[in-house]
Amino acid sequence: MIHFHRVSVEYPRTKTMALYNVNMAVKKGEFVFLVGHSGAGKSTLLSLVLKRLEPTSGAVYVAGQSLASLRGRRVALHRRNVGMVFQDHRLLDDLTVEENLAFVLRVLGVERSAWKKRIIRVLRTVGIAHKRRAYPYQLSVGEAQRVAIARAIIGRPPVVLADEPTGNLDPENAVQVLEIFKAIHAAGTTVIIATHSRELVEAYPQRVVVLRAGQVVRDEKGGHYTL
Ligand SMILES: Nc1ncnc2c1ncn2[C@@H]1O[C@H](COP(=O)(O)OP(=O)(O)O)[C@@H](O)[C@H]1O
Ligand SMILES: [Mg+2]
Fold first, then answer.
1. Which candidate among 10, 33, 76, 77 keeps its CA 20 to 30 Å from the CA of 83?
2. Whose CA is nearest to atom 5 of ligand 1?
3. Ligand 2: centre distance to CA 71 (Å)
4. What is the fold, at CATH topology level, of the domain defined by 29-42+71-220?
């Protein structure tokens, strides 16, 4: 589903090598934790999958297609296939929960008559259908993050990426958010989560890819790793 072939990224302004010769493949339906110290290159790697960033050398393939060849409208179409969750929820502050989700459905061109059902269903999946009329400022951090996940999956993308999705959450909320990602994975979605949290990784023993200073230094199954 996702394939990194000898990918390096240098940020020109600072001459930082954020990734160096990364080779990695993630199969359809796989769940991967991407771990490493701050500055190891996790966010950079996820940005490449979204084509928010171009590699300095090497190539990134998603669903067999080289991202380098995508232009214009095809970039937008590609991004629809990749749901993204960040550490902060990034919801639109002046829209309610259901309006935030309707906004996505409008962009996706989903017929208006189907919106309500889709929104209720996805909010049930993340466990906060009762908050659908609330504004983001009326939500707890954990609730807002669940809405952010709902927004990422409402378009039913085959791939979901999350960058430190539990970074702002207490342990209890972190576990609940992980449960949602488990359910997304169980439904057949390919999931990559960048995280600092050993608790998270150990709570769901899956493949762990360890980045150190821009290089993949370990790639193991079973939730155990050393940085
Ligand atoms: N926009 C940028 N411009 C310059 N350097 C950057 C930029 N983004 C990240 N970096 C650098 O690239 C390296 C990898 O960063 P990042 O991918 O954010 O790591 P992580 O997400 O693992 O903390 C770090 O040294 C960071 O300082
Ligand atoms: Mg990061």
1. 10
2. 11
3. 26
4. Rossmann fold (3.40.50)
